[in-house]
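It is worth pausing here to work through a concrete case rather than discussing structure prediction in the abstract. The textbook approach is simple: state the sequence, then state the predicted structure, then interpret. We follow exactly that order.
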Amino acid sequence: RARRSVTQAVYGAGFNSSSRFYERSSETLGMTPGQYRGGGRGVAIQYAVTASPLGLVLVAGTARGICSVRFGNERSALERQLREDFPGASIEQADRAFEGWVNAIVDHLDHPAGRIELPLDIRGTAFQQRVWQALREIPAGQTASYAEVAARIGRPAAVRAVARACATNPVAVIVPCHRVVKTDGALSGYRWGVERKRRLLKLEGAPPRTETGA
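Step two, the predicted structure:
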């Protein structure tokens, strides 16, 4: 199943062959293609769970950078989700050297301003990476619609694909997918709950938005 999903992602990103994709893998993936297919096989991941203004937040990273930031209500559920995302990785609780990354994220939630400049080691297709980079260009306190993001990356017809890229963003807040809204300004789904999306935007000083389930 993993091999099929990678192949589909390669062609879905606009590459004519898998070889062209792997030639550029260092640009499109934080991990190598083999590690990507193997769910982080052979990669050492450290993580920490701490309290934040939005509930518990789990931050995980490799030697290269942060690979996961997610919100939740239960520590055990967050840890289980991390292991499900990286079944081939060696996952351990972080040591004190990891605290700087965690503190930077929590501090941003307490006092959001600018963007979080931390090293990343995230997996994604070329298209996803383009979307995620575009999201990082949206300033705190502002929002953009899915259609606007699609236009900014030169793919105006790919609105639904942009929404899927937002939904699969592995690093909450660092890649601020919460700043993307529907064309009419309404809040749509958020991987970690629409209520957290609303609160994040409020913390950042964005104008109030209505909520929808779509």
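Step three, interpretation. The chain has a mean pLDDT of 82. The first strand starts at residue 44 and ends at 52.
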